[in-house]
Amino acid sequence: ETGVTQTPRHLVMGMTNKKSLKCEQHLGHNAMYWYKQSAKKPLELMFVYNFKEQTENNSVPSRFSPECPNSSHLFLHLHTLQPEDSALYLCASSRGTTPRTDTQYFGPGTRLTVL
Amino acid sequence: KQEVTQIPAALSVPEGENLVLNCSFTDSAIYNLQWFRQDPGKGLTSLLLIQSSQREQTSGRLNASLDKSSGRSTLYIAASQPGDSATYLCAVRMDSNYQLIWGAGTKLIIKP
Fold first, then answer.
1. Which of A4, A38, A49, B8 is least enclosed, having the fewest CB within 10 Å?
2. Residues of chain B whose C-beta is under 8 A from some C-beta in A?
3. DSSP assignment letter at B83
């Protein structure tokens, strides 16, 4: 166990469904991240939260809505997704205090399939 | 804009061979470079981190080198084992904003 957990591990949803991905870190970190990993493509950073405040949104479509209620939990709310949104969604956390040297710890990911 | 390329995308070799994975980047203004390992159904694990002022880092059978001026890094795996089978990702941290820019990875299969 890496200290970062993600649920569910697999999710299949229709384009009209609403679902949420959950990430929890047990490392006492202050920064949390959502990444999208599509087949044979580099990881794409989606959102960054530091001390519960969103510090980055890399032009992510509004059908993805993040929520960070506290430093230990991060959610990604999904609605009206498209088939091209099918991917592995990875959550990561880091101390958040030293961006230069922050080491990110990753969860196992949620494999999302949009039908 | 920084681009990170990993070649080959996939590699299959017999157990016991020494092998090299390649990572290239277009902008040499990096703070550091990291190599990660990703196993199916699991998250990424950091293997080695090389600061921009360093030439190489070693951990066990792994050796990572960095030639910042030419925009290249290699990950050398000695005496490969089936347990080394995984996808290997490299990522550079930019000097300007400390963002991590990722390669698409090399999927490595070590055949027993």
1. B8
2. 4, 9, 31, 41-46, 49, 89, 91, 93, 98-105
3. G
